[in-house]
Amino acid sequence: MPIRSMTGFAQVKGQAGPQLAFTLSLKSVNHRFLDLHFRLPAESDDLEMKLRRLLKEKMARGHVEVTLNVERSGGAAFSLNREIVGGYIQAFRTASAEFGLAADPDLNAVLRMPGVLEAGHLSADGELLPAVLGRVEEGLAKLNRMREEEGRGIERELRQRMSHVQESAASVESYRKAMLQSYTEKLNARMQELIGNQVEPERILQEAALLVDRSDVQEEIVRLTTHVQHFVGLLDEGGEVGKKLDFLLQEMNREANTLLSKTSGLAGEALKITEAGLGMKADIEKAREQVQNIE
Question: CA 158, CA 154: separation in Å to the nearest integer?
Answer without folding.
Answer: 6
